[in-house]
Design brief:
alpha+beta; six-stranded antiparallel beta barrel; two-stranded antiparallel sheet; globular
Length: about 130
């Protein structure tokens, strides 16, 4: 049992280190998650929800070449002009259709792949596309 706890503690320390490195060397990105309202069929009314905002440090790479591009290209997910955003794992979990502002332009999260050794999220790889 001790070995399991040691591995978990190791990866939790790695998570903190990755977050610290990306916070120091990367850019702080602002995300918006569209609010998902609720429909009450009895009342016939829709109650809208407010958008949620969160930030995460990360590094942006424009896709065109490299292993990350090729792996998502095979599934048909990438298009010319897409980007790969590598962000640190934190108290948030990015979701499809979250939006991120880059240089005054709005981009949408099209795919999420999380590096998660022993169940500890370390990094999120996001495929993003300009809206």
């Amino acid at each position: 049992m001790c070995a399991v706890n040691e591995k978990l503690e190791h990866w939790l320390a790695e998570q903190r280190a990755a977050y610290g490195q990306l916070a120091a060397d990367g850019t702080l990105f602002a995300f918006t998650r569209p609010g998902r309202g609720a429909f009450d069929p009895r009342a016939g009314a829709y109650t809208p929800a407010e958008d949620q905002a969160y930030t995460a440090p990360g590094i942006l790479k424009r896709l065109g070449t490299g292993a990350a591009c090729q792996s998502w290209q095979a599934s048909g997910l990438t298009r010319k002009g897409d980007g790969l955003l590598l962000i640190a794992a934190g108290d948030y979990g990015p979701e499809l259709q979250d939006r991120v502002a880059l240089s005054g332009e709005s981009w949408t999260v099209m795919a999420v792949d999380t590096l998660r050794p022993v169940g500890v999220p370390l990094l999120h790889h996001l495929l993003i596309r300009k809206v």
